[in-house]
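From: lab user (bench 3)
To: helpdesk
Subject: output format question, protein + adenosine-5'-triphosphate

Hello, I'm new to running complex predictions and I'm not sure whether the block I got back is the full result or only part of it. Here's what I submitted:
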Amino acid sequence: MIVVDGLRVEAGKSVILDGVDLTVPPGRMLALVGPNGAGKTTLLRTIAGLHRPSRGRVLLEDRPVHSLRPQVLARRIAYLPQDTALSFPFTAYQVTLMGRHPHMGRFALEGAADHEAAEQAMAATGTTRLADRSMATLSGGERQLVLLAKALAQDAPVLLADEPVSALDLRHQLAVLQLLRACADAGRTVLVVLHDLNLAARYCTELALLAGGRVLAAGEPAHVLTPAHLHEAYGVRAVVRRDDVTDSLTVTALETT
Ligand SMILES: Nc1ncnc2c1ncn2[C@@H]1O[C@H](COP(=O)(O)OP(=O)(O)OP(=O)(O)O)[C@@H](O)[C@H]1O
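Helpdesk reply: Thanks, we reran it on our side. This is the complete output you should expect:
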């Protein structure tokens, strides 16, 4: 269970998040949506313990994340960052196996269970064929999938993913969201930043719409994705309909306002 309580995050003189409250129980998949610069990445990084709030707190099973030792935190929270452009001098398999480090002793080598977890994570993300390739030679989408494999191999009860489908083709977008949804259905807590509101409405149990560092609306897709909220958050005129085939909400943005 993740509880965000009265969170305020500042960087220099700027207030990036203010008064943010959010509760995500196990078994839920919540999408953080909102315009560029709304504070989605900052919120995810703060939940991951990477930013210190100036006010409020983030609780993980009733304990402030900032009070947890890094290795303990890494066993509880897997964080998949947005920026995958870094070139690692490692193979895809080595990077995936790094997801196991929080489970290993300080000077221990990876054991059979760690290799098995890494292999399973690569199979789940369809990256087994890339195992021996250097990360530096992979396409943006392939890198994104390998970093997801690393996060899955970490086998943490909380999974935070920042725009995990931004570089992916249609099939891989669905595959990754199905995989994240399966993680939630299996009891993990999943928070995912998505720009595609239609995918967010289809795969997530709830949404939180951020704008200007605050939560404008949170809850079921039907509560959050209203023309009025979309106008206020994005400055667009939009229509929201239910899709005949998927039975989920779809947003069509018509024009900027
Ligand atoms: N270290 C920093 N110093 C000053 N401003 C910052 C810092 N980090 C982030 N910001 C600002 O905070 C705001 C929120 O940034 P953040 O990356 O969280 O937004 P986002 O919602 O994830 O955006 P995007 O959809 O474009 O990825 C932005 O205006 C950004 O410029």
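A quick orientation on your result: The longest helix spans residues 170-185. Let us know if anything else is unclear.
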